[in-house]
Structure prediction request, 319 residues.
Amino acid sequence: MKAKASDILSKYTLYLILLALLAFFAINSPFFLTGNNLVNITRQVAIFGICAVGMTFVILTGGIDLSTGAILGVVAAISARLMVNYDINPLLATTFAVLVGTSCGLINGFFINKVGLPPLITTLATMTSLRGATMLLTDGRGIFLTVRSYSVIGQGYIGFIPIPVIIMIIAFAFGYILLEMTKFGRYVYGIGDNEEATRLSGVNVGKVRYGVYALSGFLSSIAGVVFLSRLMSAQPTAGQSYEMDIITAVILGGVSIKGGEGKISLVIIGVLIMGVLANGMIMMNINPFWQFVVRGLVLLFAVSYDKFMLNRRYRVASR
Prediction:
C-alpha cells in the first residue's frame, strides 16, 4: 500500500508543479494566460516533446543520448542545403535528411553495442561531430528557405491545433503503443531493470539497443524538420543545449535515470513543465543568463527527486 501511495504522490506532484508554475506566471505577467500565448507554448514544446519520446526509450534502457539536439540541427541544415543550393524537391531533401538523422542514431547504437563505449561518451562524441557538420553545411550562417509551402509543417494549423502539436501527439501515441503493447517495449523495460537477466532470457539486447537509438535519431530528425519549417531557415546553432532540456523533461516525467522505470504518459507533463517555465521566464523578461541557471537547477531537482523516490521505494520494499 505504501509503495502505491508513493507512486500516486509522484504522479500528482508533477501536476501540482505544473499548476503552481501556471499560477505563478499568470500572477506576474498579464499576457501569460492569453489564448495566443498558450497556443504558442504548445507549439514551442512540440519540438522538445517529439525528441522526448525517443529520449524516454533511451533512458529506460539505462542509456543517455546527448546527440538529439545536434541531430535536429544537422537534419535541418541538410534539408535546407539540398533545397536552396541544389534545388532538390523538398520532399526528397527532407526524406534524405531524416534518413541521415536516423543513421546517426544507428551509429550511436553501433559504438555502444559493438565497440562497448559508454552511451555518455558515444553520444557526446557524435554530438560534437554533428555540431561541426552543421556549421560546415550552413557555412556558419543561416540558410533561408524560399519555398513558402514548406512552412505548413511548422506554422500551419488543422482547425485551431498547430500541426507541430499534432505531430507531437502522434509521436507520444506511437511511443505509448510501442512501450505498453509490444514485446519490444517489455524488452526496453527489461534491459533497464536487469540487462543480464534479460539477455539470459533469450532477448537480443544489442538489437533492442539499435532500435532504441535509431528511434531517438528518427524522432530527433522529425523535430529537425518541424524546426526548419517553423523558422524557414537552418541556423548553425540549431538545437544547441536542447538535449539538457529534453533529458530534464523526461526525468521530471518520472522516468528513472537508472532505467527500467517510468511511463511515457507522464513525460508529456515534464515537457509541459519545461515549456511553461521557459515561456514564463521570457514573459517576465528574466535575464537569459538567469534562465540558464534556473534550467540547470531544475535538472538537479529532477535527478534528486528521482533518487529520493528510488530510495523510498527501496526502503518500503525491504520492510
Q: What stands out?
A: Residues 46-267 form one domain. Residues 288-318 form the longest helix (31 residues). Residues 99 and 281 are 36 Å apart (CA to CA). The radius of gyration is 20 Å.
